[in-house]
Amino acid sequence: MASVVPLKEKKLMDVKLGELPSWILMRDFTPKGIAGAFQRGYYRYYNKYVNVKKGGVAGISMVLAAYVLFNYCRCYKELKHERLRKYH
Question: Where are the transmembrane segments (predicted)?
């Protein structure tokens, strides 16, 4: 017999579309809760990509790619202005 998991303990991928608003409202949006979510995400990423027996460049390259994309999005307005300028 399948055990029923409370809605608060379900992962996002296990939540049905009708349950989504109530699931979001049950999350902890205090500064402590947000910091805990970032910490869990960091440890999950670290243990999956960096802290492995046969590691490669995948973990660090993803961080660098995210950094480059973030800076490109941040500077897009200035880059767009430079692109339209004529050099003659």
Answer: 55-73
